[in-house]
Amino acid sequence: MTWQVQEAKAKFSEMLEKTLAEGPQTITRHGKEVAVIVPIEKYRVLAAEEKSLWEFSRKFAGAGDDLVIERAKDLPREVKL
């Protein structure tokens, strides 16, 4: 379900009960989604899955442990001041 900010504030207890019974609730401001309220169990699962940028990059590239990133050994370019 989607709630406007003012409605979420006015009916917070109802929104919380719906979160626990039905799952994540989305909050909008000026018609744009800005937040999601989730049950604590779901949050803990999501937080445990958080990876570092390095781990995410390896997984996204599909390289697994074989991903090797090397820095270019080129000299810096000359800059006239």
Protein model, in words:
By secondary structure, the protein is of the alpha+beta class. The chain has a 3-stranded mixed sheet with strand order 1-2-3. It has a single domain (2-66), classed as YefM-like fold (3-Layer(aba) Sandwich). The radius of gyration is 22 Å and the shape is elongated. The protein has 4 helices and 3 strands.
Compact description:
The chain has 81 residues and is of the alpha+beta class. The protein is 43% helix and 17% strand.
Task: List the keywords.
alpha+beta; elongated; YefM-like fold; single chain; three-stranded mixed beta sheet; 17% strand; 81 residues; 43% helix
Number of distinct beta strands: 3
Which strands sit side by side, in order, in the main sheet?
Answer: 1-2-3
Instruction: Count helical runs.
Output: 4
Rg measurement, Å: 22 Å
